[in-house]
Design goal:
The chain has helices at residues 5-11, 50-54, 82-93, 110-146, 148-163, 166-177, 181-189, 193-207, 211-218, 223-231, 236-260, 271-278, 288-315, 317-321; strands at 22-28, 31-36, 45-49, 62-64, 67-71, 77-81. With 322 residues, it is mainly alpha-helical. The chain folds into 2 domains: 21-93, no CATH class; 110-321, MetI-like fold. The strands form 2 sheets. It has a 3-stranded antiparallel sheet with strand order 1-2-3. A 3-stranded antiparallel sheet has the order 4-5-6.
């Protein structure tokens, strides 16, 4: 099945193999006996014929001395030594892995889930901020440039959205759109545009009487051209700063939704859902299962908040003058 590069980056590629975590294995004759992983130490024992593990067979293999006569699915008869089959299994079908952060109660690698979960947090930041910029800049530009009744209607709508708690609004939009990967991105983005719109509106109001704007009107330029080519490039500094802060806020909102169980749905991991799954282990000896994704959220949010403060200092005219 062809999978696009974007989908591979966001959701990963489906594996052709099914992995089973095992604690130990032994070969006995023409069989391999494995003990399935169990955190309590009482894993079930399973047994497979070694020929069935290595080759897709049409019929059951026939044992002859130290070899096995195998009728493969493509109709061929081959004779393979039992020791060779065991070596092939150890080389092709068994993998010994070391887990740097350990595993959870299901044998899943915590580090792998942490890395995969970062895709959700980073993606929700970029996509949600992108949505908020599109909606916020559009409405803020219309309200600030045209004023009058247009400004009154848009500001009324902004104030209504502003008065609703962010998390409550995200939950309502999520229930309306349904649970899923993209629905979370859209829901978070549709709640973060208000501040962008207010800032853009204020900046455009302060600039719409400037000489270069009046010159554009005198030359017969359309309102769309004046806004996009002449006004917006001069008001983007505060918008960039807000975007960095909104990026951090989007990560926190997504983590909160996933912790409540209405965010990204299993089996896809996210840092918020990992805390939700493992927070009951805090009082046990495995508190690190919940602490590690929490620390990852804190570090990522702190990084983007620091970026926002740095951009504010760099782009602030008063700071540059001092």
């Amino acid at each position: 099945i062809h999978t696009s590069l974007l989908r591979k980056m966001l959701t990963g590629a489906k594996s052709n193999y099914y992995e089973v975590p095992v604690s130990s294995y032994t070969f006995k004759g023409d069989s391999i006996n494995v003990t399935l992983f169990d955190p309590e130490g009482s894993g079930l024992r399973r047994s497979w014929n070694i020929a069935n593990v290595v080759y897709p067979l049409l019929k059951s293999p026939v044992k002859k001395d130290d070899s096995m006569i195998i009728h493969t699915i493509d109709g061929q008869f081959i004779s393979v030594h039992t020791g060779d089959l065991q070596s092939l299994i150890e080389k092709q079908n068994l993998q010994k892995k070391h887990f740097w952060l350990g595993t959870d109660q299901f044998g899943r690698d915590l580090l792998s889930r942490l890395i995969i979960g970062s895709r959700v947090s980073i993606s929700v930041g970029f996509i949600s901020v992108g949505i908020s910029l599109i909606v916020g800049i559009l409405l803020g530009s219309l309200a600030g440039y045209f004023g009058g009744r247009t400004d009154d209607v848009i500001m009324w709508f902004i104030n209504v959205v502003w008065s609703i708690p962010t998390l409550l609004l995200v939950i309502a939009i999520t229930f309306a759109l349904g649970r899923g990967f993209w629905q979370i991105f859209i829901a978070v983005g549709l709640t973060m545009w208000v501040e962008v719109a207010r800032v853009v509106r204020g900046q455009i109001i302060s600039m719409r009487e400037k000489e270069f704007v009046e010159a554009g009107k005198a030359l017969g330029f359309s309102g769309f051209r004046i806004i996009t080519r002449h006004i917006l490039p001069n008001v983007m500094s505060p918008v960039i700063v807000i975007s960095a802060a909104n990026f951090a806020a989007a990560i926190l909102i997504e983590a909160g939704l996933s912790f409540l169980g209405i965010g990204v749905q299993p089996p896809m991991p996210s840092w918020g859902s990992m805390i939700r799954e493992y927070y009951s282990f805090i009082i046990l000896n495995s508190a690190y299962l919940a602490i590690i994704p929490g620390v990852a959220i804190v570090l990522l949010v702190l990084a983007f908040m620091t970026l926002g403060n740095t951009l504010r200092d760099v782009l602030d005219v008063k700071t540059l003058e001092n």
